[in-house]
Amino acid sequence: MISDQQLADRMAQGDQEAFEMLITRYHGPLLSYVTTQLRDRGKAEDIVQETFVRLIRHLKRYGELEQLRPWLYKVALNLCRDYWRSASYRSELTPADELPDDADPSPQAEELLERQETVEQLKESLAWLPEIQQEVVRMRFFHELKLQEIADVLDLPLSSVKSNLYGALRKLKRVLAKTAEFSSFVTGNRPKSQQESEVPIHETVH
Asked: In what ranges is there compositional bias, type Basic and acidic residues (predicted)?
């Protein structure tokens, strides 16, 4: 498969096909990411389109671009932040000084991602995390960015990204465990070992 770097190089030379290939590769993931940030698909479409426009401008001006994927996510995130500060956003129902708390996921927790229903639980559980940890988990597991790429997007040291990811996974593991225990209690589906160990009071063990 042609690499991001090759696509960027070809785009810088005016290759329309390379641009279309890049759109195919990144439009969906970026739209999903921005929609989660804004909770407004229409506005998200606008921001993704503007992200690609800025990519074209950058390549025309500088002729090259290293680390294409984190660059795209960083531009998209900055455009979201610009929108949150804009007059149009301030005129909406959300308080002007309040950025939205994202609730959009998680390895060691890699085993938790094996089942689709668990992924949905993870999405809901993100609300328990600080915003920065939500961002790191979302980029790592929903959008498959590498840790260094996340550090580049968020302008954080790599060590900070690692510590936030580790802290988030520990919290998510606890939240998910409690959710599973509550679900088992409500449905009556207790672990088999626990069921077998319980003997009714009126029975005698021989």
From this structure: 193-206
Look at the pTM and tell me if it is higher than 0.70.
no
Distances (CA, A) of 68 to 10, 27, 160: 13, 13, 22
* pLDDT top residue among 102 and 167: 167
Domain containing 126 equals 111-189
The answer to whether residue 194 is domain-embedded is no
Give the three-state DSSP class for 145: coil
Helices (H), the chain: 4-12, 16-38, 41-62, 68-85, 87-90, 116-125, 131-137, 147-154, 158-187, 192-197
Q: Are residues 118 and 169 in the same domain?
A: yes
Residue 186 binned pLDDT confidence (cut-offs 50, 70, 90): very low
DSSP secondary structure, 3-30, as one string: -HHHHHHHHHTT-HHHHHHHHHHHHHHH
Q: What is the DSSP letter of 164?
A: H
Q: Are 42 and 67 in contact (CB under 8 A)?
A: no
Task: Look at the chain and report how many structural domains it folds into.
Answer: 2
